[in-house]
Specification:
The protein is mostly beta strands and 387 residues long. The chain contains no helices and 27 strands. The strands form 4 sheets. The protein has a 19-stranded mixed beta sheet that branches. A 4-stranded antiparallel beta sheet has the order 1-27-19-24, with no helix packed on it.
C-alpha cells in the first residue's frame, strides 16, 4: 500500500424477498508479542527451507512473528494472498517485501522474499475454575509458501448456544446432547480460534536499498470475509519517516441476500440495520475512514439497484471503540481513529493502539419506499487514509 494513498474494499449487499441464514464468521488481528512493522528484510532465518517447518516445533518466538489472526464462525479454510505490490524478477512465487520511497513510490524490482508458517489453536469456553483454556488442537505447523495457499480450520468458534435437544459442546470441548443443565450448550467447541502467523526470510533478495519495504497480505474465509495485514520491513538505517502500516478488516454481518422486511420501517440512524463491522488497528499510524457509493470515493448517493428499478438508502456508522454516537455516513464525511487500549481476546493483555472499530448500518429515507420484487444490489466502498 503506497504512502498517502487510499485503499478501498467493496462490500456487496443484496435484497431479496426471502430469508437466508446469516453469515457469522469474523476475522481480526491480535498483536500479542508480534508486530506489523520493522522486519529486517536482509536477515536469514534458520532453517530456511519451507519443508523443515512442517512439524510440531512452534516458531512464534522467532523475530518474524506477525501476531495472531483471530477467527470466529463455522469450520472454514483461510487463504493467504498477496494484495500489495507484485515483486518483479522473482523465481519462487512466494511473498515479498518491496521497496517504497519516502514519497510513496513503489519499486517492485527491489525486494526480499519470505514465506509463512502458521499454527492454528483454540480458546475453550470460560470455566468456573481458572484453568488453561488455550488448546493447541492442530499440534503441527502449516506452511504457506505461495500466495493463495490455505490452512484448514476444522472446528468452529463463537459464543452461540444450542437449543435443548441439540448436540453441543461443554467447556472441555466434549460433545453431547444438551438437556438444559448438563453443560453441553455451546454450538462450537471454542470461543475463539486463532492462527499464529510467522514470516520466514531465506535471505533471497534483489537490489536492496536502504529504506523501508512493504507487503500486504489479505486473509480470507470461504464466505469471503477478509482482513488485511499491512507489513512494513526495513533495510539498513533509513533517514526518512516510515510509511504507515495497519491492520484493516470489514466483516459482513447480514445474509446476502436479505429480505426487504428487515429494512422496512427503518428511517433513522438509531433504527438503522447493521450490515457489517469495520475494524482498523495500528500501533503507530492514525487514520481516517470514509465510505462511498463508488470506487472514486465521490459524493454519489447510496442506492440499491435492480434491472430497471432502484431506490435510495442512507448509510450510518456507529463507532464502538472509541464509543461514539451513531452518525449518518454522508458522502465525504470522515471518521477518525483514536488512541485506545485494546485487549487481546486470547490472553486479555492490553495494548495502546490507534483504533477505530464500529458497525456499518443502512436505513431508508422515509416509509414511502416500496420496491418491486427482485434482487437489488449495492456496493459500499471503504476508504482508509493514513494520517
Amino acid at each position: 500500500m503506497r504512502l498517502g494513498k487510499k485503499i478501498l474494499l467493496p462490500i456487496l449487499f443484496s435484497l431479496l424477498f426471502s430469508m437466508i441464514s446469516l453469515y457469522s464468521d469474523s476475522l481480526s488481528y491480535d498483536m500479542a508479542t508480534g508486530t506489523l512493522t520493522d522486519f529486517n528484510v536482509n536477515t536469514k532465518d534458520n532453517p530456511r527451507n519451507p519443508h523443515q517447518y512442517k512439524n510440531g516445533t512452534e516458531v512464534w518466538t522467532k523475530s518474524g512473528f506477525v501476531g495472531r489472526v483471530v477467527y470466529t464462525g463455522p469450520p472454514t479454510t483461510l487463504s493467504f494472498t498477496n494484495t500489495g505490490p507484485d515483486a518483479t524478477g522473482t523465481s519462487n512465487n512466494r511473498f515479498y517485501f518491496t521497496y517504497i520511497s519516502s514519497s510513496g513510490e513503489s519499486y517492485p524490482g527491489r525486494w526480499s522474499e519470505f514465506f509463512l508458517v502458521l499454527r492454528a489453536k483454540g480458546l475453550r469456553h470460560p470455566k468456573e475454575q481458572p484453568s488453561d483454556r488455550q488448546h493447541d488442537f492442530s499440534g503441527i505447523n502449516t506452511v504457506v509458501e505461495h500466495p493463495g495457499e490455505t490452512i484448514t480450520i476444522p472446528h468452529g468458534a463463537g459464543s452461540e448456544e444450542v437449543a435443548v435437544g441439540e448436540e453441543g459442546y461443554n467447556v472441555d470441548g466434549a460433545k453431547d446432547v444438551y438437556n438444559g443443565s448438563n453443560g453441553y450448550k455451546y454450538k462450537y467447541p471454542y470461543t475463539y480460534i486463532w492462527v499464529d502467523v510467522t514470516l520466514i526470510r531465506p535471505q533471497i533478495t534483489q537490489g536492496l536499498w536502504t529504506g523501508y519495504y512493504e507487503s500486504e497480505i489479505t486473509v480470507s474465509t470461504q464466505s469471503l470475509t477478509s482482513h488485511i495485514l499491512l507489513l512494513r520491513g526495513k533495510y539498513g538505517w533509513p533517514l526518512v519517516d516510515p510509511p504507515p502500516f495497519y491492520s484493516f478488516g470489514v466483516t459482513k454481518t447480514i445474509a446476502d441476500p436479505f429480505p426487504f422486511s428487515e429494512l422496512e420501517g427503518r428511517t433513522t440512524t438509531t433504527q438503522a440495520l447493521k450490515v457489517a463491522e469495520v475494524s482498523y488497528i495500528s500501533s503507530e499510524t492514525a487514520a481516517t475512514i470514509h465510505f462511498a457509493a463508488n470506487a472514486a470515493g465521490t459524493s454519489d448517493p447510496f442506492s440499491f439497484h435492480c434491472e430497471g428499478s432502484s431506490f435510495p438508502y442512507y448509510l450510518a456508522f456507529k463507532a464502538t471503540n472509541p464509543n461514539r454516537s451513531v452518525e449518518q455516513a454522508a458522502p465525504g464525511q470522515t471518521f477518525a481513529t483514536e488512541i485506545e487500549q485494546v485487549w487481546s481476546p486470547i490472553d486479555s493483555t492490553p495494548s495502546d493502539m490507534h483504533v477505530l472499530q464500529g458497525d456499518l448500518k443502512i436505513y431508508l429515507p422515509d416509509n414511502q419506499v416500496q420496491p418491486a420484487e427482485g434482487v437489488y444490489t449495492a456496493t459500499v466502498y471503504c476508504f482508509v487514509t493514513p494520517q
